[in-house]
Write a structure and sequence with these properties.
This protein is mainly β and 93 residues long. It has a single domain (2-92), classed as OB fold (Dihydrolipoamide Acetyltransferase, E2P) (Beta Barrel). It is built from no helices and 8 strands. It has strands at residues 2-14, 20-26, 32-38, 53-57, 59-61, 68-70, 84-87, 90-92. A hairpin with a 5-residue loop joins strand 2 and strand 3 (32-38). 24% of the residues are buried. InterPro entries: DUF3465 (IPR021856).
């Protein structure tokens, strides 16, 4: 899945297993998705704030709350398509 959204909430990092930076994006159609971005593999989006625009490419998994996008970074083992995040004129992943 790829698209662009606005950060509506920044959540604490998930530190169970690989560390993931987590935030909620609101898409143009109003759908909200959780972005789980592996900061053990790729650099953190330091300074990310509510209201910021973020473009993304990653693997989407539906859930009743809107869904989660993960694999928004390269896969060191090569099993998943390389994903990315774009924020503040920089590409992460």
């Amino acid at each position: 899945m790829h698209g662009t959204g606005t950060v509506s909430r920044i959540l604490p990092d998930d530190t169970a297993g690989s560390r993931h930076e987590r935030f909620i994006l609101t898409l143009p159609d109003g759908l909200t998705i959780l972005v789980a971005y592996d900061i053990d593999i790729a650099p953190r989006l330091n300074g990310l704030r509510v209201g910021d625009a973020v473009a993304f490419l990653g693997q989407y998994e539906w859930n009743a709350e809107g869904g989660t996008v993960h694999w928004t970074h390269h896969d060191p083992s090569g099993r998943h398509e390389t994903g990315w995040l774009e924020w503040n004129d920089r590409t992460y992943g």
